[in-house]
Amino acid sequence: MPTKAPRTYADIIRHSFTSLLMTIGIIIVLTVSITLVVDQLLRAQNQAAQLSASLQTSQVTNFRDWLAINRASGLNSRNTFVVIHNADGSTTSLLPHGTSLADDNTWTIPFTHLTYVKGWGLFFAETLKASGSTYHLYIEMHVLVGNLHVLIAVLIIAIGISLLIGLLFVRRLAKRISAPTMTLATAAQQAAANPAVTQTALPQPTEPVEVGQLAKDFNQLLAAQNGRLERERQFISDASHELRTPIATIRGNIKLIKRRGDQHPEIIPESLGFIDQESLRMQHLIENLLHLSRADRAEIDRQPLDLSDLVSTTLTHYQPLISQEITLHTPTEPVWALGDSDMFHQILTALLDNAHKYSPADQPITIDLAIHNEQVTLSVADCGPGIPVDAREHIFERFYRVDTSRSNKIEGSGLGLAIVAQLVQLNQGTITVSDNQPHGARFTLTLLAAPSQSD
Question: What class of enzyme is it (predicted)?
Answer without folding.
Answer: transferase
